[in-house]
Amino acid sequence: MLKGQHQVHGGFDGKLNWFYFDEVTGGVYYGWKYIDYQDKTCYYGPDGAMYKGWCVVGNRRYYFDETTGAQH
């Protein structure tokens, strides 16, 4: 079972994406997540894939680093 942040093929586009797997259940996480060991906040979409670039979450636009996914 995967736990924590991992890069795997999946998501709506089927490409290599970053996902976060729940530390207890191993389920795919979605929503806002603070990754303490990387000191970053990122967002995982409804398919579980980490957002990158300009994205809309709720009714607001956010920019997420193209490489790390960190919110700016």
UniProtKB/TrEMBL annotation:
Does the keyword Repeat feature in the UniProt annotation? yes
Q: Which InterPro entries match?
A: Cell_wall/Cho-bd_repeat (IPR018337)
Q: Which UniProt keywords apply?
A: Repeat
Question: Pfam families per the record?
Answer: Choline_bind_3
Q: Which domain of life is it from?
A: Eukaryota
Repeat among keywords: yes
Q: What is this protein called?
A: Uncharacterized protein
What does the record give as the organism's lineage?
Answer: Eukaryota, Metazoa, Ecdysozoa, Nematoda, Chromadorea
